[in-house]
Every structure is written in structure tokens, then in C-alpha cells.
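Reading group handout, session on sequence-to-structure problems. Before we discuss, look at one worked example. The prompt was deliberately terse, the way you'd type it at a terminal:

> structure Phosphate transport system permease protein

The input record follows.
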Amino acid sequence: MSTSDTPPVRQEDDDLQAARRPHRDTAGRVFAGLSTGAGTLILVVLAAVAAFLLLRAWPALTAGSEELAAISWIPDHGSIVRYVGPLVFGTLVAAVLALLMAVPVAVGIALFISHYAPRRLAASLGYVVDLLAAIPSVIYGLWGGLWLSRRLEGVWGWLADNLGFIPLFEGPAATPPRVMMTVGVVLAVMILPIITAVAREVFLQTPRLHEEAALALGATRWEMVRMAVLPFGRSGLISASMLGLGRALGETMAVLMILSPGLTYSFALLLAGRHQTIAANIALQFPEASPLGVSALIATGLALFVITLAVNMAARWVVARRKDFSGAN
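And the output record:
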């Protein structure tokens, strides 16, 4: 059919689409430029933060033991590495302990809300979980230091008496129990709503056909969850755990208000005066710090920055490796 035989309405539609095509191309280029600029800005800010921390921490990193000895809260004849080491250890112990407690509970709550609870109950529980994330950390600190620690005193004493042969539960348990185990419980409660909220949304995104296929083959509800829901949400669950781990690593006030500080490498979670975290130590020592002391504290902040960056990079690597086997594709 020749061009002259083309219906007028179709010809007008083709002309309209041809007129709109340059506008679409322009909008696409603008969006691509904005996205690239936003990504570049994030990298620039990250590099600027790293450069600031390194610059401000350099005096402490290059100072001798005699200069560092003038700082009252740094152990005598110690280097900055010996000072930062126990703080890094305490930070990692607190974060890992909180993660071990929170993740199983968060997965259970998320599965109950997404696949077991009635719709009205699930909505109410979802609101309650989301509200937990809005509570300030200082409230958690007051709750943990003034109320929860007293309630856990008997539990930690029982662990020390009956399982004291395990280094983690070496006794006698401190009274009041301002120890790392209490901090781990409070941090677990703090990161619980973050992990639960993300895991719940990921589990709800499981393809309906996968669930129905498992049930049609005779699987029970738990078998369906184990074979369809959990593999699909594995990458999202790892991401949720890393979000919770990030908050646990950087938590300040709750740890400061509960923990009895110490600078040792100890796995005894029920003994006081053994551990301290980087964030809590900065908040504790900063008001009375000298210029060199501020530099030493910023050096510990640089260590926390490196730890957080390494954790996020490792999480991205794990997610990328597991993506092809998660069922998400």
C-alpha cells in the first residue's frame, strides 16, 4: 500500500509519536545525568569523610608513646594501635552478639506477619514493630540500665553458676550486670524492628506462583516457607541484617548508659569492666579531651569507618554471589 493510501488517523499518530521521540530522548539523558551525578556525589562525600578522618587522626597516628601517655585515658606506655584494638574488639563483640540474638527472632516475626497471622493481626503487629524503630536510643539506654539489667541479674547469675566452664559465661556475674551481655540484649531489641521490617517486605514479595506450586505438590506451610520463601528472600535478609549491624556498630548512648567500660580482649560477657565500644568511648571521653586526645578519638572513629565500610562491601559481595541462587530471578 502506498503512502497516499495510509489512513489519515494512523498518519497523524505516527507524526505525533515522531514529534514526542526527541522529548523522550532528552528526558532520558537528563535522568541518566542526574543519576550519574548523584552516584558520583555519594563517592565524593565518602572520600571527603575518609580524608577528614585521616587528616584529623594523623597527629595521634604519628605521636610517640610519651606524647600519648599524657592522655589520661590511654594506658601507660601504649601506642594508638594498642588503644584502638580493644575498642574495635568490644565494638565487634557487641554488634555480633546483638545480631545473633536479633536475626532469628526478626525472621520469625517477619514470617508470622507475612504468612501466618490473620490480616488484621498482621497489620497491627506491623505497626507495633515499626513504632519500635522510632524510640530514641537514650530511652533504650534508660530502660536497659535502670530496669532490664536488674531483671537479668538472676539469669546471668544462673549462667555463670551452671555454664561458667564456658569462657563466654565465666563468672561470677557482675552485680548490677552492666556487662556486655546486657548490652547485647538491648542492642538486639534496638535492631529488631529494622531487620523485621525489611525481612517482612522481602518475604511478601515472594512470587505467588512459587508458593502455590509448593502447596500443590503437597508441601506443608512450613515446607513451603522453607523451599520457596526463604530462598527467595535470602539476599534481602542479608541486606536487612547488615542494616541492623550498621546500627549496632555505631550505637552510642544506649551502650554508654549500660556498660561498665574496660579496655581488654576478653570473651567473658558476664564480667564488668572488660569491654568498651568505639562510639561510646568517643562520647565518654570527648568533653574533657585535649587536642591530641581529640585526634586519638578521631583515630578510633576512622577505625569504625573502615569497619563499617568493610562490612557493607562484604555484604554486597555475599548478596551478589547468592543472587543467582536465591530464586529472585
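Points for discussion. First: Residues 145 and 258 are 5 Å apart (CA to CA). Second: The domain at 63-325 is CATH 1.10.3720.10 (MetI-like fold).
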